[in-house]
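Discussion board: Methods & Data

I've been asked by a reviewer to show the raw model output for two of the constructs in my manuscript, not just the figures. I'm not sure how much to include, so I'm pasting the format here to get opinions. Each protein appears as its amino acid sequence followed by a line of discrete structure tokens. Is this the kind of thing reviewers expect to see in a supplement, or should I convert it first? Here is construct A:
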Amino acid sequence: MQHTATISRLKAAGAPPRLSGLAQWADRHFKWLLVAPAVLLILALSVYPLLFSLVVSFINYDFQVPGHAFVGLKNFERVVFDPVARWSLLLTAWLSGISVAIEFVLGLLVALTMVRSFPGRGVIMSILIVPLFISPVIVGQAWTLLLQRPFGPTNYILTQLLGQEVTIGWMTESPWLYVSLIIADVWQWTPFMFVILLAGLTAIPPNLYEAAELDGVNAWQAFWAITLPHLAPMMLLALTFRLLDAIRMFDTIFIMTGGGPGTRTYTASYYLYTVGFTQFHLSQATAGSWLFLIFTALVVMLLVRRLLKTEPV
């Protein structure tokens, strides 16, 4: 009766009721309970598949061979000693390096042109960034229609301009098949470079250029003394982001060349797709994915370390 009377007095006085042990624990760990669903989702969709793929790379996980026997490093050896794998890695580095370099130069030139205000600037910028919103599959299909012989208009236009018949096999002849892939990639991703570099240019204080102009510095000297040092971090950031995306090139190759002729346009991503989902050697494809991941991580580490050291003058 005394305990009941005490509770009644507490309620009457407006005192909060005493929490149970579980409620007190939930109150102390409330912030962790809020993020727990997201953490569990990340573990289920990212960490578990990653760990499972690591296990698969050490076993015989092949749809054509029964059982999952442990094979050690045999899957990694198959990838390392596969000439197609080595060629695909070399082609990935070559294509991504050339494409990103061209995109960087063109993006910088466009950004330097568009940094000043002029009539119609907004309309032109809106048109320039349209390729960014187009799916790579659509881009590949569009350039296939433009370049494919005999129905594509590219050879006809070149014939009219050069005054002699042009019969280039853009999708079948070397080196034109690589040129066609680079053209499609540059067309789509140059606006990405342009947007990032334009943001960096607009962040440079205008008074620096005004002071340089009073000192008699010409435009070329101002670019090297003012623009380039201040824009260097954004340049490296744009190159890092674009290079990380370029080495995963798959969509346009799948649509435009299908990896052919033969294996000439096999990039790392296309090689892993072919081994895993066409030949059904999943363990070998997984081992190759881990090797490609390590290679990419090394590139990222070097670029990020260089980015952290780069500071505007």
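Construct B, same format:
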Amino acid sequence: MATIREVACQAEVSIATVSRALNTPHLVAEPTRSRVVDTARRLGYSSRRPRRAGAGPGRTGFVGAVVPDLANPFFPAVLRGMRNAPPAEGRHVLSLDAVEDPALEADLLRLIARQVDSLVLLSPRLPSDRLRALSIPGRTVLFNRLIPGLPGVVVDCVDGMRRLVAHLAALGHRHVGYAGGPRASFGDAERRRGLAESGRTGGLRVVDLGAFPPYFASGAQIADRALREGVTAVIAFNDLMALGTIVRLRERQVEVPERISVTGFDGIPLAAASTPRLTTVAPPLGRAGQTAMALLDAEIGPGVPGATRWRVLPVRLVVGGSTAPPPAPSGGAGSRK
């Protein structure tokens, strides 16, 4: 029986395009849709065939992983951990990119659940009830999301924010801006919770700079808003946004960290390669992927009564050159030096 991957290969399109062409055809251009439909018909593939009742582990050998943004280096690092988790032989991770689109995320879940033995959903954006309905019962693990009844692995974002706030407070910052990520992001909600708790105890005045798409390009708007607010430090939702913020500040001839400190979150390799090196919070991304697979194996296996079905992974603060004490008051309201 043909698989979606074979259809995508034969039609010379992505797996996501096959999903849209067969499930939401109005989203696909007619020539592409016709090519996909003709290929699926020729190969005998149906996106609506039911999953066999009682099918045991290893029926396909695939674990489906749906991610919100494969272009963000954070997620491929987790996927590598999943692929390196024992037992690797005979098991393959099939990853699909929802491109920060909850509607596409739902489409991909509906499709991939028919093609794989189990699911790992990385930072899913869908509401909890939709995720429960679209998951494979007893064969689904979440990463960076906690939903009652589903096993999951989360990064300790609250502690990560505590560490960032303590670092900035120790440097003397008292007026800090937070550039948030997608409103549907569990990680953003946890970062905001940690910031609210630690900001009060650290004596910081925290300005909400807004919610932004979690991309490098968002840095331009973040930097402009931070300058208008007069903050001395910016905490960005992720490293990509932080790096984009630094670039925009340079364009405006605002020195980092002499004029404004900037921090990220995620610990991607680009953070260490930037100039100045980015101060960030680094989760153990490879370990996160391996832990998700271990929870999945425990879920499929006989299980241990009373076993914990979720894990919280520790983080570490990586101090780079993008943070420093705030500038001394100069007396000139418009001064940037």
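Answer (T.O., handling editor elsewhere):
This is acceptable in a supplement if you add a one-line summary per construct. For B, something like: The longest helix spans residues 186-202.
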